[in-house]
Automatic annotation (TrEMBL), chains A, B:
<dbReference type="InterPro" id="IPR016192">
    <property type="entry name" value="APOBEC/CMP_deaminase_Zn-bd"/>
</dbReference>
<keyword id="KW-0479">Metal-binding</keyword>
<dbReference type="InterPro" id="IPR002125">
    <property type="entry name" value="CMP_dCMP_dom"/>
</dbReference>
<dbReference type="GO" id="GO:0072527">
    <property type="term" value="P:pyrimidine-containing compound metabolic process"/>
</dbReference>
<protein>
    <submittedName>
        <fullName>tRNA-specific adenosine deaminase</fullName>
    </submittedName>
</protein>
<keyword id="KW-0378">Hydrolase</keyword>
<keyword id="KW-0862">Zinc</keyword>
<keyword id="KW-0963">Cytoplasm</keyword>
<dbReference type="InterPro" id="IPR016193">
    <property type="entry name" value="Cytidine_deaminase-like"/>
</dbReference>
<dbReference type="GO" id="GO:0055086">
    <property type="term" value="P:nucleobase-containing small molecule metabolic process"/>
</dbReference>
<dbReference type="GO" id="GO:0008270">
    <property type="term" value="F:zinc ion binding"/>
</dbReference>
<comment type="subunit">
    <text>Homodimer.</text>
</comment>
<comment type="pathway">
    <text>Pyrimidine metabolism.</text>
</comment>
<dbReference type="GO" id="GO:0005737">
    <property type="term" value="C:cytoplasm"/>
</dbReference>
<dbReference type="GO" id="GO:0008835">
    <property type="term" value="F:diaminohydroxyphosphoribosylaminopyrimidine deaminase activity"/>
</dbReference>
<dbReference type="Pfam" id="PF00383">
    <property type="entry name" value="dCMP_cyt_deam_1"/>
</dbReference>
<feature type="domain" description="CMP/dCMP-type deaminase">
    <location>
        <begin position="1"/>
        <end position="116"/>
    </location>
</feature>
């Protein structure tokens, strides 16, 4: 298992333990994690802190160059908000745990030149399947449905 | 002047007075402002709190129905992050102060059925022109350049 995807999964599990939505993300630059995050809808009452957004927020203000040399790891296919953020900052590569329980804007990312790699990771799939089964209303809220 | 665009401009000016980037936004539902915000890059050290994102964050968790009945007012053409967020939540209409100093993802929004109306408001244009002239590095950071 890629250690960075493992770190994203650890974030997802941390979110679940907090009563939240189990999606985690890490931003990696030069082989180091510069931001970790997980979905904070429940914990912070936030409609914008998806896992990817929380990782970027926790990385803080970075020069444009850093984003353009970084890879974002996320346990779930990034939605249009998170994909738009990847495009804003020109993050060139996204490693995605799975896209079976939710297909985000991978086509948009790819069409704009982002390298989107999907791992089809079983642990990520199970985390989301269990969560969607247990709290469907919360999941629908998170994806605007 | 539309009172909701005026409220967005007031937010932009508040941000400027705080030493921040002068972009403001309000989310309007059923003729009432349910969230106000302005860019907080400087004030909160945040790479994700653009004006639109801050307005949504301040509106808090809303049912999907509310977003789908709302209009987002923003002083500047929404970047890919903010446009992706508009798409995530299915906000059907965006009223934009100006797109002369920065052209966001209006084409993407329109292609997905969002009604994007541009006011070409001179006060919004002047706010941004003055800001970009005075703090070009800060502005470039905000748009990932």
């Amino acid at each position: 298992m890629d250690k960075f995807m493992q770190a994203a999964i650890d974030e997802a599990k941390l979110g679940l333990a907090e009563g939240g939505i189990p999606i985690g993300s890490v931003l990696v630059h030069n082989g180091e994690i510069i931001g970790r995050g997980h979905n904070k809808r429940v914990q912070s009452g936030s409609p914008i802190l998806h896992g990817e957004m929380d990782a970027l927020e926790n990385a803080g203000r970075q020069p444009a160059r850093v984003y353009k040399e970084s890879t974002l790891y996320t346990t779930l296919s990034p939605c249009s908000m998170c994909s738009g953020t990847i495009l804003l900052y020109g993050i060139p590569k996204v490693v995605i745990g799975e896209n079976q329980t939710f297909m985000g804007e991978e086509s948009l990312l790819t069409s704009r030149g982002v390298n989107a790699q999907v791992l089809h990771n079983q642990e990520c799939i199970t985390l989301m399947n269990d969560f969607i089964r247990d709290k469907p209303e919360l999941w629908n809220e998170d994806i605007g449905e």
